[in-house]
Each structure stands twice: as C-alpha cells, then as structure tokens.
Amino acid sequence: MVKNSFISIIFQEQEENKENRGSVEFQVVSFTNKIRRLTSHLELHKKDYLSQRGLRKILGKRQRLLAYLSKKNRARYKELIGQLDIRERKTR
C-alpha cells in the first residue's frame, strides 16, 4: 500500500493548488487513484461486471490523457509516469 500513500501525497499537493484541477496531471492522478481503488475492490468481488466496465472506461480516459500529454510535453509526461509508477504506453 505504499503506492496508495504516495498517490495521496501527490494528490494533496495537487489539491493545494485548486486553480489547477483541470490540468492533465491532476486528472491523471485522480484517475490513477480511482483505478487503484477499483482494482482492490475487484480483487474481492470478482463478478462485479459493472465495476469492471467502469474500470475499463477510466483506463481509456487515462490512456487518452497520457497520449495527449506525451504529444504536447514529453518531459512532463515522463515525470508524471515516474511519480505514479505506471508503465509507459506502447507505441505502434
């Protein structure tokens, strides 16, 4: 659960700057937090198909935001995926 505590620290830093709630980084952090919560929920409730669908939708949203960020500012993208400890997206 070290990852979750680290995420909450990043999330609190982002929350302190309330003007930045629409930023791509803030949205990715909040989606990552939701993804981790849903993943732990689905480990207990394997047949909760509605939550599985919600998880897939959130994963797609985060993937699109990360693709946008990698096109616009590669340095911020690299820093963010390093902080959140998520994999870099595959390129075709």
From TrEMBL:
<comment type="similarity">
    <text>Belongs to the universal ribosomal protein uS15 family.</text>
</comment>
<dbReference type="GO" id="GO:1990904">
    <property type="term" value="C:ribonucleoprotein complex"/>
</dbReference>
<dbReference type="InterPro" id="IPR009068">
    <property type="entry name" value="uS15_NS1_RNA-bd_sf"/>
</dbReference>
<dbReference type="Pfam" id="PF00312">
    <property type="entry name" value="Ribosomal_S15"/>
</dbReference>
<dbReference type="GO" id="GO:0003735">
    <property type="term" value="F:structural constituent of ribosome"/>
</dbReference>
<comment type="subunit">
    <text>Part of the 30S ribosomal subunit.</text>
</comment>
<keyword id="KW-0687">Ribonucleoprotein</keyword>
<dbReference type="GO" id="GO:0005840">
    <property type="term" value="C:ribosome"/>
</dbReference>
<dbReference type="InterPro" id="IPR000589">
    <property type="entry name" value="Ribosomal_uS15"/>
</dbReference>
<protein>
    <recommendedName>
        <fullName>Small ribosomal subunit protein uS15c</fullName>
    </recommendedName>
</protein>
<keyword id="KW-0689">Ribosomal protein</keyword>
<dbReference type="GO" id="GO:0009507">
    <property type="term" value="C:chloroplast"/>
</dbReference>
<keyword id="KW-0150">Chloroplast</keyword>
<dbReference type="GO" id="GO:0006412">
    <property type="term" value="P:translation"/>
</dbReference>
<dbReference type="InterPro" id="IPR005290">
    <property type="entry name" value="Ribosomal_uS15_bac-type"/>
</dbReference>
<keyword id="KW-0934">Plastid</keyword>
